[in-house]
Design a protein that fits this description.
By secondary structure, the protein is an alpha+beta fold. It has helices spanning 3-37, 44-62, 65-70, 73-77, 79-99, 104-131, 138-157, 159-165, 172-191, 200-245, 295-310, 319-330, 423-433, 439-453; strands spanning 257-264, 272-280, 283-291, 339-347, 352-358, 363-367, 372-376, 379-380, 394-397, 402-407, 464-471. 34% of the residues are buried.
């Protein structure tokens, strides 16, 4: 036989292994690519599936003499070590794969199984390196594979168990693939002692059906998650519209005052809230509140503040009573979350201000007349701590040129790259630097300064709300939009 004929005969005998190895490496590439494109928790199943398929494909190729002959010498030298490692580590990766699909007791059993898999793989690899023995622990490895496969077949074959212990509601494809692979594995083990020849291609086909059924399930989970996220985005958009609808549409017209507000949620919905309680053209109350936490739970409680403020109607000139009324409602409903709030009553007939707060950052006053910066604190307990809290009140005169700032902690707490918070001292510096700017301009400039303080790669760290009030010489001002 010529050399060419010998090569052709060799390739014909190895073509099944080469095709199988290439197929499973292709499946590996697809699974890992999808997992990389969609780096979410649901993609971990495809990640482990890709590794599993890649290891199996590499194992098939390393058993092919033509492929091995084409490999670099360094790879050929460790071929047997790679085969031993793949042989024992495949069950480890398979168990990781099914941990992404299982729940409850079955998941805990698989975690115990995983510990045994890893321990056996480590011992087998060490034993091979030390003694060169590749098969001494093989029977235990096969036992672990049989236990895993039997647990999966039994659980999937019994509907009540599969519904209880698998994360997917519809798993018909996974069940069919597992049962086919289980039946094929059982047939191989029965045929061997009976000296029945089973074509090697049957093993490859059975395993391919099994892997593809898992891949189908993984893609189905990802698609379901994508649909759920899209639905959630739609619901959050509606929630955002509703939350903005309960905020003031603009700032009130109060003689002798200029008022502007900025409301910048960290996410679609926020735990910050503010409200203007207008008695007439010369009297206004300003409430600002901050719910602990973020997102939907905080936003729901923030919406309760709107309702709670209705209880204060008729007593808006008394900050302590406003806070007590709001607190009496919120303390019953916040359920473990905390709410800080501050209320400022401005009386332009007597040119006096009255202020009280519930665990809120201080009211800041910049007095143009003497260039002083004052933090005014008059705090009772946060809402949600104690329903019997009292709220001390302080009163002070309003002078032309005074600027007041009410804000939530999203203004002073953002940190820069070194972990240093923006802080009250920097807030004072900015108020001094921008004292000549209008209240509307200041409401734009302060958030911009805070963003500049942070790294451009860092997302907004908290909800941010601020209300700026200037005391001006008399006159009636046009309202400003929020």
């Amino acid at each position: 036989m010529t050399a060419e004929a010998q090569v052709a005969a060799l390739l014909r005998g190895e073509v099944a292994n080469i095709v199988a190895g290439a197929f499973f490496l292709f499946i590996c590439l697809i699974a890992l690519s999808i997992a990389a494109i969609r780096p979410r928790k649901s993609a971990r199943l495809l990640l482990w599936l890709g590794i599993w398929s890649g290891m199996y494909g590499a194992q098939e190729l390393l058993r092919s003499a033509p492929v091995v002959a084409s490999l670099p010498t360094a790879v050929q030298a460790i071929r047997l070590l790679l085969l031993v490692a793949f042989n024992y580590l495949i069950i480890v990766v398979a168990t990781f794969t099914f941990l992404e699909l299982t729940l409850g007791v079955l998941r805990r059993l698989l975690q115990v199984h995983l510990v045994a898999d890893i321990a056996l793989a480590v011992m087998a690899i060490v034993l091979f390196v030390v003694s060169g023995s590749a098969d001494s622990l093989l029977v235990y490895n096969q036992l672990l594979i049989a236990i895993l496969l039997a647990a999966l077949v039994v659980t999937l074959a019994i509907p009540s168990l599969s519904r209880r212990f698998f994360v997917v509601a519809q798993h018909r494809v996974l069940t069919i693939g597992t049962l086919i692979f289980g039946a094929q594995a059982l047939w191989v083990n029965v045929a061997r002692p009976l000296h029945i020849v089973v074509p090697g291609i049957s093993n490859t086909l059975g395993f391919a059906v099994f892997l593809l059924s898992i891949g189908y399930t993984g893609v189905e989970i990802m698609v379901t998650d994508e649909r759920r996220l899209l639905l959630l985005d739609d619901e959050l958009a509606i929630a955002r519209q509703l939350q903005f609808s309960i905020l003031p549409e603009g700032t009130p017209q109060i003689e002798g005052l200029e008022i502007a507000a900025a409301y910048k949620p960290m996410s679609a919905v926020a735990g910050d809230f503010y409200e203007f309680m207008v008695a007439d053209r010369r009297h206004v109350g300003i409430l600002i509140a901050d719910v602990s936490g973020h997102g939907v739970p905080a936003a729901l409680i923030a919406s309760m503040i709107k309702v709670a403020m209705q209880a204060a109607n008729g007593r808006v000139s008394d900050p302590a009573q406003v806070l007590r009324s709001a607190g009496s409602i919120l303390n019953k409903n916040v359920r473990g979350q905390l709410v800080s709030a501050a209320y400022l009553w401005l009386d332009m007939e007597t040119h006096t201000a009255t202020y009280s707060a519930a665990g809120h950052p201080p009211l800041v006053r910049w007095r143009k007349r003497d260039g002083t910066f004052t933090r005014i604190e008059s705090n009772g307990l946060l809402f949600g701590v104690d329903a019997r809290s009292e709220y001390p009140v302080c009163q002070f005169p309003l002078l032309a040129g005074d600027r007041f700032l009410l804000y939530t902690d999203g203004v002073t707490e953002p940190e820069n790259q070194t972990g240093q918070p923006f802080g009250e001292s920097r807030l004072e510096l900015i108020m001094r630097d921008y004292q000549q700017r209008s209240v509307a301009e200041f409401c734009e400039l302060l958030p911009a300064e805070i963003r500049a303080w942070q790294s451009s790669s860092v997302a907004q760290q908290d909800d941010m709300t601020l209300i700026v009030v200037d005391v001006v010489e008399g006159g009636t001002l046009q309202p400003r939009s929020v």
